[in-house]
Amino acid sequence: MSLTAKQKGVLKGMLIGFLLALSILVLGSNLNPFNFNESLGVIDRLQIAILWCLVPILFLTVSIGRLARHRFFTPQDIDGSGLTEGTEQAKLLQALIQNTLEQTILAVMAYFIWSVAMPSHWLSVVPIAALAFGLGRILFFKGYQKGAPSRAVGFTLCFYTSALMILSTLGYLVWQQIS
């Protein structure tokens, strides 16, 4: 099967995003750069999750605010997407909200699950993942209008980090049950 130039660009972005996400998990859990104590209690773990969940939530808030601002200042869009066709800019901003919402839900779940279930000296993964989320969203927003290859690293940096956190936690918990 031969890939188009766009598919090759997306594949390259996917590979970069995956390798970065894998590095976040491996290095964050092994090096513990935030120096989390091995005996953190549940309350401390939840505080870490809550603090770092604010990063994805902030990006979602900004995404919603951008569309609200656009609608307020654009007569064709002020009535909202349910009542109008929507300008191209409104559709683009709505697509950014939708993707950011999906990524935020996944990230928030991943951060909470990881914070509670994984060994506390592995918790550095959470703040590193949150910072990567912020970088990923910026890259995604900047690259969106240029097409799929230009936004692939931004998308995958958010998605693969959260997905690997969830899958790693599942594997860890299953291993704890069978060993």
Name the descriptors:
179 residues, mainly alpha, Four Helix Bundle (Hemerythrin (Met), subunit A), 5 helices, globular, transmembrane helix
Describe this structure in words.
This is MAPEG family protein. One of its GO terms (cellular component) is lysosomal membrane. The chain crosses the membrane at residues 9-28, 48-68, 120-140, 152-175. The chain is mostly helical and 179 residues long. The mean pLDDT is 97. It has a single domain, classed as Up-down Bundle (Four Helix Bundle (Hemerythrin (Met), subunit A)), CATH 1.20.120.550. The chain contains five helices and no strands. Helix 1 (5-31) crosses helix 5 (148-178), helix 2 packs antiparallel against helix 3 (88-117) and helix 3 (88-117) packs antiparallel against helix 4. 78% of the residues lie in helices and 0% in strands.
CATH architecture classification name = Up-down Bundle
CATH structural class: Mainly Alpha
Shape: globular
Rg over CA atoms, rounded to whole Å, is 19 Å
Helix and strand topology:
Layout: H1 5-31, H2 42-73, H3 88-117, H4 125-143, H5 148-178
Helix pairs in contact: 1-4, 1-5, 2-3, 2-4, 3-4, 3-5, 4-5
Short description:
With 179 residues, the protein is an all-alpha fold.
